[in-house]
Amino acid sequence: MRIEQIRQRLRSLGANPGHVAHVLRRWAQARPQDSGRRRLEHYLPQALRAELPVLVEDLAGLARLRSEHPAEDGSARLLVELADGQTVESVLLPRDGLCVSTQVGCAVGCVFCMTGRDGLLRQLGSAEIVAQVALARTLRPVRKVVFMGMGEPAHNLDHVMEAIELLGNEGAIGHKNIVFSTVGDARVFERLLSLAEGRVKPALALSLHTTQPALRAELLPRAPRIAPAELVELGERYARATGYPIQYQWTLLAGINDGDDEVEAIVALLAGKYALMNMIPYNNVDGLDFKRQSAERAAAIARALNQRGVLTKLRLSAGQDVDAGCGQLRARSPDAGQARRIP
Predict the structure, then answer these.
(1) How confident is the model over 210-225, as pLDDT tens digits?
(2) How many CB atoms lie within 10 A of CB 52?
(3) What is the mean pLDDT of residues 54-76?
(4) Is 55 helix (H, G, I), strand (E, B) or coil?
(5) Which of 134, 167, 297, 316 has the most CB atoms less than 10 A away?
(6) Catalytic (active site) residue 296
(7) Catalytic residue among 99, 106, 113, 326
């Protein structure tokens, strides 16, 4: 379902733009529709008031919690059931963050990631994306939303951008606290740059993983063939247009992209750029032969980059003890791991 379909339904019940914003705001923020100073009978049209209980139930049905898998660090992996019975996973993060999914599965097929192993099953509608946020907000506050869950947002661009627009307005999420993560696609940069002067300007995270075009094609086999240097230049344009640094994502794979040659190439590529490098030690995935880098080597790489002028953070993924880390999301059964079952 698209957000525009919800708007059309509201308009068919006599809602004006203010009424539509009222309903969407309370839905996206997980607040009761009768919250606020105005009494609904003094504000909403009668036809809308009569339909409101059904509408609220329909919106809740877009994303229901099947199971919750709490982690020791305060994060939690959520198995979310969609209205058609398909499931996705989203992750409650420490410090009021939420990682949302944009697709059931993924077509990019990053070789070190669990999500794309079964390919793409279907796109999520923009309303289903926002519904994940509304659901999470029934569990705890959400002040940051990252599009880093299941799926490649660039492959579902219209729905993702609709969701971002609503979250940045009615959803009350600060623009720089909405993070669009992508392997890189020319259409994404064109679309985002067109929004750079608009109301909602999300931050951007780019999956780099290597400076070598041939190796990147091996690691991200169905990503657009954009050379890392070109990808950085496109990212730099967006960073300068919005005033937000680009977050470059680099999954450290032992013996593959963790050599001194890569460190030197990263310095050449990112020195002087408005950028932050997130070095992410590989999170183990059953059935894959990649190895996690040693803590000492990972720290040494981050330290060397910082010393050479590339702002770098060694980022340990949240929720690794419940398989909620980067590259580990997959729509599993509710019984996979320790779960709090939801009746």
Answers:
(1) 999 999 999 999 999 9
(2) 17
(3) 93
(4) helix
(5) 167
(6) no
(7) 326
